[in-house]
Amino acid sequence: MKKFVILIILLSLVYPLTGCKSASEVAGEKLAEKAAEDIVGGNVDIDGEQITITDKSGKTTSLGGTEWPKGKLGSEILEYKKGVITYVAESDTDCAIQLEKVKKEDFEDYLSDIKQAGFTENAIVSSFDGGSFYTADNSKGIKIHLASDYESEELMITVTQVNNEDQPKL
């Protein structure tokens, strides 16, 4: 746990430097990658706004970026085509996508599409003043969580593989 906290602190110091890069910033990025690799015992690649960590067993986790995830879980759900993606985190077993500028009507349309795509098993629906929450599984053992805040126009989508014994749970 201590190594993980150190890694997060290190990456949070480097992340703001990853925009337009001078030679010294590139050198700093490489130094930070090396330090992070020593901490996690795997490969760390810092590329602009995205950080990719590959552990010794070959499992990959990516953090950052503003594109719809193209990994296993990102491809298992319908892409939300409205709003603006502000953050993505993805591993073999989990995926999180944060969006802004999501209108209530657009969220409700997406929720309807998600249900039509089969995310209806073990469903939990909750509406609250200014927002909505939905979670359900599909027949492939994938769980989706949708949390929308209508006032701030934010949407958080998280997807988890829940029934694959070959993959560890986070």
Mean pLDDT figure? 79
The percentage of residues in β strands lies in 35-45%
Please compute the radius of gyration using only Cα atoms.
18 Å
Broad structural category: alpha+beta
Sheet bearing the most strands, described? 9 strands, antiparallel
What's the β-strand tally? Answer: 9
Strand sequence of the main sheet, in spatial order? Answer: 1-2-3-4-5-9-8-7-6
Q: Overall 3D geometry?
A: globular
Helix content: 25-40%
How does this model look, in words?
Helix content is 29%, strand content 35%. The chain has 4 helices and 9 strands. It has helices at residues 2-14, 23-40, 72-76, 104-116; strands at residues 43-47, 50-54, 60-64, 84-90, 94-100, 121-128, 131-137, 142-149, 154-161. β4 (84-90) and β5 form a beta hairpin. It is globular.
Features:
170 residues; alpha+beta; 9-stranded antiparallel β-sheet; 4 helices; 9 strands; globular
Briefly summarize what is shown.
The chain has 170 residues and is an alpha+beta fold.
List the helices and strands and how they pair.
Elements: H1 2-14, H2 23-40, E1 43-47, E2 50-54, E3 60-64, H3 72-76, E4 84-90, E5 94-100, H4 104-116, E6 121-128, E7 131-137, E8 142-149, E9 154-161
